[in-house]
Amino acid sequence: MTHSLRSFLLLLALITGPQVFARKNDPKLERLLRDALAGFRGDVGVYVHHIKSGKTVSINADTTFPTASTIKIPIMCGLFDKINKGELKYQQEIVYKDSLHYDDGIVGSLKDGAKFPLSQIVMLMETISDNTGSLWCQALAGGGTAINSWLDANGFSKTRVNSRTPGREAFRPTYGWGQTTPHELAELLLYIRQGKAISPDASDRMYRNLGRQFWDGDGLSQLPEGIKVATKNGAVNRSRSEVVLVHAPHGEYVYCIMTKNQQDERWERTNEGATLLRKVGALLWHYYEPKSDWKPADGYQKWW
């Protein structure tokens, strides 16, 4: 690639990437969100973008947070970049080897030599957040270096894969598998929604993959069952995160909430980070859909 072509592509990414959208703050929603975040024992960042109106709220939204499993959205982008270049096929058969084992999820429980379509491994990565399958997809995408190059070229300069990525060793103790900001992660999901990631066809396929979420007990539990969403969440001991694009009746909105340095490390529904994800999810739904009287049934809440 020539220097002039590289410069042109970077300029194009700046034009079409997350920086281009006109923004205006929503002070009323910001006050409500700040009240909701008050007293949280840890660090938290929130970014909200109501797509039709262009109104946003940013609270620590450009602060860097651990991605946990939300890094699986950038991994999928890197993988589809390879597919778009003809280096992989989405439905091609791939062979599992014991050397790929990371944990005992679905993919990690496969027998050596098991054959699966790549598309099904991607589905497991995004839907149930299978870690062995995700690391397999990361390797197939060319590794963290290739994924980070795609992110950089498309204007997402703060989102990075750290794990198994040369040169990123210093960031792993603090951020783990990956790092991002609430602002960038929300805009990456919107980038896919708008057909700008890789190609319109690739974006459509990736967006559909993000519309099937097994882990729906946090912010998604605060939405009516029939509302379409695209989403990915993540959790480690001291961090909870969720990025969601909601197809609300009165206009789509995308938001991302991320925590770090949580004092509460319990793996229970009442974890302060998980509770905050539900609180923010409910607040945004009722803010944008004020005539909605829907709320989770008591039995539903107790079941979790």
TrEMBL record:
Example GO molecular function: beta-lactamase activity
Q: Does this UniProt record's set of keywords contain Hydrolase?
A: yes
Q: Signal peptide location in the record?
A: 1-22
Q: Which Pfam families match?
A: Beta-lactamase2
Q: Give me any GO biological process, just one.
A: beta-lactam antibiotic catabolic process
Which InterPro entries would you find in this protein's record? Beta-lactam/transpept-like, Beta-lactam_cat, Beta-lactam_class-A
Reaction(s) catalysed (UniProt annotation): a beta-lactam + H2O = a substituted beta-amino acid
Q: Quick check: keyword Lipid metabolism in the entry?
A: no
Parts forming coiled coils: none
Tell me the ranges covered by the Beta-lactamase class A catalytic domain, including all copies. 45-259
Entry superkingdom: Bacteria
Query: Which Gene3D superfamilies does this chain map to?
Result: DD-peptidase/beta-lactamase superfamily
List keywords of the entry alphabetically.
Hydrolase, Signal
Q: Which SUPFAM superfamilies match?
A: beta-lactamase/transpeptidase-like
Q: Which PANTHER family match?
A: BETA-LACTAMASE, SLR0121 PROTEIN
Specify the protein name. Answer: Serine hydrolase
The taxonomic lineage of its organism, from the top, reads: Bacteria, Pseudomonadati, Bacteroidota, Cytophagia, Cytophagales
